[in-house]
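Reminder to self: keep the SMILES exactly as supplied, no canonicalising. Ligand is flavin-adenine dinucleotide.
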Amino acid sequence: MTARATTLINDPSPEHSAFRATCREFAEREIAPLVDEAERSGVYPRQLRQRAAAAGLTGLSLPEACGGAGAGPTFLVIAIEELSRVCAGLATGLTGGLGEHLLCTVATGEQRDRFLGPTLAGEASGAFAMSEPDAGSDVLNMKGRAVRLPDGRWQITAQKMYITGAPFADYLFVAVYTAPERRGKGVSLFLVPTDTSGIEMHHLDKLGHRSMETAAVFIDSVLPADALLGEEGAGMRYIGETLEVGRVTHAARSLGVARAAYEYAEAHAHQRVVFGQTINGYQAIQFKLARMLITLRSAALHVMETARALEAGAHVMVEACMAKVVASEAAVGVATDAMQIMGGLGYMMETPVQRYLRDALLYPVSEGTTEIQLRTIARQTGIAEV
Ligand SMILES: Cc1cc2nc3c(=O)[nH]c(=O)nc-3n(C[C@H](O)[C@H](O)[C@H](O)COP(=O)(O)OP(=O)(O)OC[C@H]3O[C@@H](n4cnc5c(N)ncnc54)[C@H](O)[C@@H]3O)c2cc1C
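Structure tokens returned for the bound complex:
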């Protein structure tokens, strides 16, 4: 069954629309053929990163001086939405993220050459290791430590949890305390090649995003002095600087999955005959699809409006949190409604609607849970007195 692509809002310019068409074509040509095997095997096809690099998608939003395309957030959200519409698990990480941004902005020239160049070429990849078993939302509760040895090297011990892309990563960005007594000002970031002695990975099996590999990572390693990324103690500041873009791009991913679910269900409703007529003839189904469309458009407006403000240099933490909540809830709601419209077929593995719902269920949890977004909104708008 061929689902037709839906237009939710007008793109900001003809260049954005042309870029959307290019991303859609890439996703359908390069990602779609890999989905079934990667979702079944749980093995990420690394060659996809090289193809994304050839298409200019890796490092999309990095400045040209760092080897990126210099595209702003409005282009980035379009790319993520379009790639995730085909497969969110495979799309994750193709367009770059916090790690690449830090390699561009705070890494030394040597670190940049060693890690960023191969990453942008699609030949290497990094994974961002911050969460721990007792430190997800409460990230400052992390137990991971780095201690400077008398010879200047670093002894790192940490247990990191749920790390996206770690099993096939060439290096990790590891956040640990170098001065725990300083709390938010005592966390530092380290660049850790995954072939370093003392690193162990355990694959984690999960409900959705099955084509993206995830691991628990145990680190008990000695690293050279130059493994430190940026300034000692500045880790949380660096992470904080990219939270807004992280949340709005996460919202774009949710939007891509929600749109895929809607489009598939809408196409099905035009074909499925029950009681002598296609089910799109029933008002109950029409109203459900109409509400799904309203939900999608609301999420699309949140995402693009926030991306535009970010591009204009505005401070958009509240709006980014709102976009993340609206879009992640849209993904879960629309994918659930899509399952209902599909009837029994939706529950079968032969259609992708079950995948959209399994993937969507991640979004209210990852990149800061919904409750953490609401907490930030309450604090920043004065609802909560802090
Ligand atoms: C598939 C997947 C991939 C991930 N990838 C990465 C990665 O690449 N790198 C990385 O570092 N981490 C990653 N994470 C971790 C993710 O960021 C955390 O799971 C998330 O931040 C939630 O932390 P937690 O799991 O410890 O839940 P908890 O913090 O234990 O939260 C449990 C519940 O309590 C709620 N809660 C917590 N605090 C409050 C509060 N103050 N008020 C109200 N409710 C509250 C939460 O919202 C949640 O509902 C990933 C997670 C998953 C599932």
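Points to follow up:
The radius of gyration is 21 Å.
The mean pLDDT is 97.
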